[in-house]
């Protein structure tokens, strides 16, 4: 950094080189410093990503319970509250509904696909299925939407890092 900050003419005199060669040297040094900073930032982002994965894995392992049916199948749950009216049906699985009811921050316990399913569900149907007020179900859907958005941003950041790293390999 010191060599970059020194005025070009002074550095050229000290090195007994032309100012053109000195400029090339300073530009090269600046590129090295820029690359190191980008690598440092990439490492920090990767460490945050790995830490988030560990946290998510530990949360998911606490939630994971044996299932009788494969996970991909979705149950239609009859949650009608009265025998006179038509039953309210939701496409959410029993496991998703249980997670939504029982966990203090269920959006952190669901995978991205489950979050999307919760967001697709009609707010009134979700409230009825959970036995909650519509406002509480809406707040849950908002939290799920924020979590899904955050996850998508992380994926985009990683893709950007990969493309930047891949472009640098091609230049080297």
From TrEMBL:
The lineage of its organism: Eukaryota, Metazoa, Chordata, Craniata, Vertebrata. The gene is Dffa. Residues 65-90 are annotated as: Disordered. Residues 1-118 form the DNA fragmentation factor 45kDa middle domain. It comes from the Eukaryota. This is DFFA factor. InterPro entries: DFF-C, DNA_fragmentation_mid_dom. It holds the Pfam family DFF-C.
